[in-house]
C-alpha cells in the first residue's frame, strides 16, 4: 500500500472489515510475540466474526513468533495442529 495509504486502501486490506454472514467458520491461532502481525489483528478479527455471528475459535499463544509451520516440537505453538484437528472434527469435517 506504500508509505501513505488512503483510508479506502486501508479499509480494502483490513480483513476484519470484509467479514459477512454467511461465511464459513474460522479458526484463528497467533502468538503474542509475532513480530510481523500485531496480536490486535486477531482480536479485531475475532470481534468482527462474533459480531457477524460467524462461528470462530481463537487460540492465543504467549510465545511462538511468526510462521510456525506445525510448530517446533515441545513449543507452546506445537499444540495448534491438534487444536485445529479437534476443531475440524467438531465442525463435521
Your description of this structure?
The protein is α+β, with helices and mostly antiparallel strands and 93 residues long. The protein is built from three helices and two strands. It has a two-stranded parallel ribbon with strand order 1-2. Strand 1, helix 2 and strand 2 form a beta-alpha-beta unit. The protein starts with 6 loop residues before the first helix and ends with a helix. The model has no long low-confidence stretch (mean pLDDT 94).
Strand content: 5-15%
| Tally of alpha and pi helices | 3
Helix fraction by DSSP (H/I, runs of at least 4):
25-40%
- Please compute the radius of gyration using only Cα atoms: 15 Å
Strand order of the largest sheet: 1-2
Low-pLDDT residue spans = none
The largest sheet, given as strand count, sense and whether it forms a barrel, is: 2 strands, parallel
How many strands appear in the DSSP assignment? 2
Q: What integer is the average pLDDT?
A: 94
Ends: how far apart?
37 Å
Amino acid at each position: 500500500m506504500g508509505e501513505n495509504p488512503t483510508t479506502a486502501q486501508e479499509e480494502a486490506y483490513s480483513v476484519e472489515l470484509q467479514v459477512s454472514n454467511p461465511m464459513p467458520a474460522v479458526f484463528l491461532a497467533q502468538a503474542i510475540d509475532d513480530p510481523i502481525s500485531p496480536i490486535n489483528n486477531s482480536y479485531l478479527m475475532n470481534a468482527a466474526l462474533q459480531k457477524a455471528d460467524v462461528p470462530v475459535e481463537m487460540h492465543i499463544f504467549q510465545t511462538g513468533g511468526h510462521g510456525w509451520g506445525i510448530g517446533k516440537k515441545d513449543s507452546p505453538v506445537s499444540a495448534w495442529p491438534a487444536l485445529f484437528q479437534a476443531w475440524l472434527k467438531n465442525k463435521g469435517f
